[in-house]
Amino acid sequence: MKQLKQYKMKQSINSLLGYTIKGTDGEIGKVEEFFFDDQTSTIRYVVVKTGGWFSEKKVLISPEAFQKLDYESKKLSVNLTQEKIKNSPDIETDKPVSEQQEELIRGYYSWPGDYGNGMYGHMGLGMWGYPLVEVRETEKEMIQRKTKKQANENPHLRSTQEVTGYDIHTTDGNIGKVDDFIIDDVSWKIHFLIVETGNWFSGKKVIISPRWIKDVKWQEQIVTINHSKEEVKNSPEYDSSQPINDSYEHSLNDYYEK
């Protein structure tokens, strides 16, 4: 993936919704939502609603295709043509994306099939409460996995739209709901979840790191972190009108990891 920017910025997912996706020969459509890997907290796809230049549909575009993110014009440039998008495999983005569908679309665009080079992350506890293990496949196992017909959904591909609204539980009670996500525009990794505390802390918004997630109950839509309500309440205040700089991020990490 060619990265034209020489520095990274941290932005909220919601602030990127509605951005225009610009292909090499014209506009493709608008950003509608994002899919992320719940083991690595990395954005896997942007869901794009195509414009009127052909029959309207939704397509998945990987960060592999991203070239330039222009905040002033609210455009994200990709190294794809309108024709390439038009002929892409149809994916029903309102339904769970299966591993077979994912392999089909990644093959069509020639994006790497083993996302993350066969690794789900560092050894230890996963970003969303999963114990992580290093994946070491033999050549035979890799061939078997790739040729296996997989009808079930990818269990680790999540929609940011779906997770928005999940309850956030501490070690001693509920503190609010997921309101947004903070990502950086180089690695496309989720660095923080923005939590709307509502009546719990007089409407104060706080941010938490996926590294502090102890467990996620997907069916019950509950995210549990390994800190108390009091710790969250007294954490460095989050100001949504200000960008998250290194100083703030360091103070937040120092506070929770002391």
From TrEMBL:
BP term (GO), one: photosynthesis, light reaction
Annotated Pfam families: PRC
Gene3D superfamilies per record: Photosynthetic Reaction Center, subunit H, domain 2
Region (Disordered): 231-250
Protein name per UniProt: PRC-barrel domain containing protein
Domain PRC-barrel stretches: 13-81, 162-231
UniProt GO cellular component terms: plasma membrane light-harvesting complex
Coiled-coil annotated spans: none
Domain of life, source organism: Bacteria
Cited InterPro entries: Bac_photo_RC_H_C (IPR014747), PRC-brl_dom (IPR027275), PRC_barrel-like_sf (IPR011033)
Species assigned in the record: Flavobacterium bomense
